[in-house]
Amino acid sequence: MAVLLLVLASMLTLGGILNHQVAAEGSGGPHQPLGNAGVPASISGGGPVVDTRAGAQRSLAVQPGKVALTFDDGPDPQWTPQVLAVLAKHHVPGTFFVIGAHVAEDPGLVRDEVADGDEVGIHTFTHDDLGTAPSWRRSLEFSQTQSAIAGATGISTPLLRPPYSSEPDAVDRLDWAAIQDAGKHGYLVVLTDRDSQDWQREGVQKILDASIPPTSTQTLTSKQTLTSTQTPAPVVAPASGAAAAKGKATPAAPPPGFVLMMHDGGGDRSETVAALDQLIPALQARGYTFATVTGAVGAPSPLAPANTVARWKGKGLILAVQVSDFVVRWLGWAVLLSGVIGAVRVVLLLVAARRHRKRRAAPWGPPVTRPVSVIVPAYNEEAGIRATVESLSASTYPIEIIVVDDGSTDGTSAVVEDLIRRRRPGLPPLRLIRQPNAGKPAALNTGTVAARGDLLVMMDGDTVFEPDTVGHLVQPFADPSVGAVSGNAKVGNRKGILGRWQHIEYVVGFNLERRMYDLAGCMPTVPGAVGAFRREALARVGGVSDDTLAEDTDLTMAVIRDGWRAVYEERAVAWTEAPSSLRQFWRQRYRWCYGTLQAMWKHRRSVLRGGAEGKLGRRGLTYMLLFQVLMPLLAPVVDVFAIYGLVFNDAARVGAVWLAFLAVQMVMALYAFKLDHERPTALWTLPLQQVVYRQLMYLVVIHSLVTAVVGTRLRWQRVQRYGSLGGTPAGASVAGQQGV
User: For 38, left (φ over 0), alpha (ψ -120 to 50), or beta?
Assistant: First the structure.
């Protein structure tokens, strides 16, 4: 999983660079305040093609009558094909200075450019300002773009146009240093003679005005019609001298050639496409012919086949970029979907909790007064068993107490025997049963056989009951369809931050969900800490099974599948000792999660059944799969994507979304605490819980799934108890202080 997260983080980092670090036109350079001090006059006053390779300092001008159409910031899937179509329509070539990141995203467009006879040059990988970039960054920008071009087209190119560049006279000392560095890397730098200024997006006419050299006799309109002041080209000079005597005309000298800068990417280029379609015939009418940059300066094409290593390196880069783009796109949808599902869950829980509260205000039926047996399985519970038995001894409902010592190696039995010896008249009967260690399910079955009552309450040896807990817990059995009842388990040791986090989880998570499960008729778990069953229901499902590590979940599902109802009685409060260390917490939740997965798999066929069994399958198991398995698996992805948003996107927006999420969680927590009559003082830890505790929980789920997939047999793991409930739990009655 760590490797997967590392790969995911790498893909998102690459996606962040591609999607958010590729600068837009106009966001950097040139550096006019610096001036051109230190720039040779032959460069600042020379032609648009600058050659500093092998220590040279020369510039090349475009031949008279030639125009080199150049396009920056592509390829773009929308605008580049339209530009190519216009060039093909008029049978003229172009030179495209491409951004490496865009090449990797749309390699087919660059192949189309080369196939059409156009030239390709690099415009860096991320449109970085080379004048201010360090040398290592320049080298990386050059090499990565070259690799992308090689992977896409199989060729290499020495042509380079620095981002934010313009005419030679605008080159400052930083630009000049970058140009010289490019020459050391073997690049021929192409500036421009004329900037169409199409990046300003001020209309087609503005582009045409900026692109066509002015003359004293010609004016161009956006409709490309000749006016009374225009003279068609070529212009023929009047005959004179010997030429006139021979009756011949002397053609005028061709107009000065130039390199024209336009754009096929970086934004809306509809004006560029429209202007280009008018510009080409207008310049042709004035006597211009079109060529690539190297053709315009009279040089051979510099494009050459890339070697095998360069091609495969480029293909790997393109694949990485495309995978990254796919990951970023679909992760965005996944995060959005998880947010929507999470919001639906919050609404569902709150609405269900409100309805459940109103419904449970009415009595279940005639008061239940039948005998009840309380079974306490115990394994090495010396620290807490006294408090457990004493709380049961204070019960206001008539019960018998059966402690089953499942082969304890500590003084558990000695504590219970001492309680039996000192038992005062009038207290509930207390029995101790010893057996060799066989596991909690076996201990519960032993207690069931020994019990005299037909209503059986099961609790853990680390749990403390309120005096009226048993009375409330058995009242739902007034309804003959009820076979199991879940009580309201609360965390007693909640002083530390881990205890507070678990306290919040019990109140907000477990108990809100039990209210919803109750209404939906699909209660999947009657907790081992506080639950009750009909003896008849237990007998019909064969008692407590040891097929899974979550025997309480397995048993509850079996009872429901047998046709019984499982309900939630919130007034039946029990105080349990939660793990007080991260190690113990991990072991407990690992066992719970793994056991739950086992139970879900064991009862998976209920999805296809009807009646109560079908409700468990289609409602309960689906909800558990979604929110206890899939959503925790998606949680690390959401967190990584959030970090991605903070680093590469709008940090303020990401922060606002997180605060909104936290506000929703806080509202839900406040309502849950109100329903459970709890003071909300622990909720100050909620923000930190969302950052730390949630990560622990999804790691537990991942660990459990890996264990399940590889088929490892996980043994039952007991949490170390410290007897922290021996006193009075926060908010509990004085049950633990009753005499024996």
Answer: left
Q: Which CATH architecture has domain 2-215+254-324?
A: Alpha-Beta Barrel (3.20)
Give span(s): CATH 3.90.550.10, the chain. 360-737
360-737 in CATH: which number?
A: 3.90.550.10
Distant-in-sequence, close-in-space partners of 711: CB < 8 Å, separation ≥ 6: none
CA distances, 634 to each of 199, 339, 407, 638, 699 (Å)? 41, 11, 41, 6, 11
Looking at the chain, the whole-number percentage of residues with pLDDT higher than 70 is 85
- How many helices, marked H, and strands, marked E, lie in the chain? 27, 22
Residue 318: which of 118, 108, 19 has the closest Cα? 108
Cα pseudo-dihedral 14, 15, 20, 21, rounded to 10 = 20
d(CA 717, CA 94): 72
Calpha distance 225→676 (Å, rounded) = 82
Tokens representing 466 are: 């309120």
Residue 404: partners with Cβ closer than 8 Å, 6 or more residues away: 375, 376, 377, 378, 433, 435, 443, 444, 446, 447
Write out pLDDT tens, residues 359-380: 877 788 899 999 899 999 999 9
Neighbours of 620 (CB within 10 A): 26
Q: Smallest Cα–Cα separation from 721: which of 583, 598, 577?
A: 577
Reply yes or no on whether the pLDDT at 231 is more than 50.
no
DSSP code, position 475: G
Q: Where in the chain is the domain with CATH 3.20.20.370?
A: 2-215+254-324
**pLDDT (average), residues 424-429:** 92
Provide the token pair at 585. Answer: 């917490």
Is residue 568 within 8 Å of residue 514, measured between CB atoms?
A: yes
**φ and ψ at 572, to 5 degrees?**
-85, 85
